[in-house]
Structure formats: C-alpha cells, structure tokens
Amino acid sequence: DIQARNLLESLLKWVASGDLKLSAEDKRGTLGQILARDCPRDGLPSEATPPPPLQETDRFVAGDVDRPADQVPSADPAPKAEERKLWLGVLEAEEGERLKSLRASIDAFQAHEMPTRFDINRLLVSALQAQITLLRMSRVFPASAARGGLNLTSAASHGPTMELARELRLCWRALGVTDFTLTALLRHALPAAGQRTSISRGELFAGVLPRLRRGVDPKALKALATEGSVFAADIQTWNLLRSVRKWIASGDLTLSSEDEQGRLGQLLATDWTRPPGSRMPPRT
User: Fold this and answer.
1) Which domain holds residue 235?
2) pLDDT digits (tens, 9 = 90+) for 42-80
3) pLDDT tens-digit profile of 209-253?
4) Per the domain annotation, does 64 fall within a domain?
5) Cα(240)–Cα(146) distance, integer angstroms
6) Is 50 within the bounds of a domain?
7) Is 2 part of any domain?
8) Where is this region: Disordered (predicted)?
9) What is the pTM of this model?
10) Which is nearest to 61 in space by CA: 161, 174, 202, 173?
C-alpha cells in the first residue's frame, strides 16, 4: 500500500492545509526546496504566489559586473525607444532558456542523495549562465546613470525576470552558499566570464556603435542575441569547481562554517588538495 502511495503529493496537501509546518531549516533542505516549488501556502513560493522581491544580491549581479572600461572594448549598447520591445523579446527568450536549463540542473542535483562533482559543476554552470542573463536585463531595465545596473523597481514587475531570480535563489540555497559568500563568489566568477568573452563580444558590437540614428538597427538586435549565446557557450566549457578551489587556495574566497556544511562546501572539503604553503581557509 505504501509503495503505491504518492507521498510527495500527500506532503503537499498536509503543508497546504496547515497540518504540517516546515521550519526555516526544513525549507533549506532538498525536500523543502521541492515542496517550495509546488506548494502554494506556508510561505513557500509557487506558481500561484508572487515571488519575493529582488534582493541586494540580485542588484549586485545585474549592476557591478560587466563594466565596459575593463571588460568590453566598446561602450555598453542600449536600445533606443523604438527598439526596447524587440530587445526585451530577445532577452525574455533567453530568460526562458536559462530557466529551463537551471531547473533541469537542480532536478539532476536533487535526484541524488550525494550529488557528484559533475552534478555540482553542472549546477554551477547553469547558475552562472542565469546570473549573466539577469545582468543583461539591465539593458532594458537600466538604473540611473550614476548607479548603473538593473532597475529593481522595473524588474520586479517583470514576471520572467522574477521567476529566474527566484529559481537562482533555490539553486544557491541547494548548494548551501550563504548570501555573503555568494556575493564574494560572483565578484570573481562574473568578471571572469566577461573577460573570457570580451574579444568576441566586442567584435559583435563593433559595427553597431555609435548608435545615434533613429529606427531599429537589425545589427544591434542580432548582436544582442548572439552575445547571450557567446556567454553561454563559454561558460559551458568552464570547470567552475576548479576555479572556486583556486580562489579559495589564493585566499580570495573564504567559506564560512555555514558554507562548509552545505553541499558545495562539503565537496570542496573532501577533495581539497593543499598547494605548497597554502591551506583550506579556517572556519569563521
């Protein structure tokens, strides 16, 4: 009888009815994250409830990474008024692709009690690809010229962006990465992604700028779409686990005791090899 029952469905009903309460710690676990995706109550996000507002981590992701001065050999292109809807359509399609990829990676990660290095690296790759897409959304939702980056007020009303940001939070939570460490990790990963692709992306927009005339520029629209593919293809070949180990070894990235208890931290601890004169950063 138990074999035939859908226990996950039963759990969803018990949580939805209020008969079963999940603590904050429960919600951080694999089961809690799965329930969070489907349960419309108990404070868990679902398709039926609005996602939480964008946070400071999201502001950093979209606003302090791809600086033209040191990573792109041209000014950062932005759509003219008559192009904005077309650019938004391109970026929305990219958000959909990243969301699908991220969910597939999360599902593969959560399918194993002990995720493999491949599962974790795949999830890191999908997460970084999605973070880059959030960054690119600042092209159509720009903040003030002084601040730069994504306008959180405008982005908060855009469903696809919010959905991708929400799934990203589930991803980093599943990996056990704290917000403080995530910000530090992104300070290395996202600029590195910009530097690795700067030449090819610069070539894409070389014939587009300056953009002073009115009307729709097909070359700019094509360059925008191709730029996303360039980012994604390069990140796909990246061994992010190796890069994270390198940043830790150099002292540029330190994991807290809470981080070390997460899936990513546990994996880094089990196969950590100490380079001469270095050590795993101490617990804080």
Assistant:
1) 81-210+217-271
2) 333 344 344 445 554 444 444 333 333 333 333 456 777
3) 555 567 788 888 888 899 999 999 999 999 999 999 999 999 999
4) no
5) 32
6) no
7) no
8) 37-80
9) 0.72
10) 161
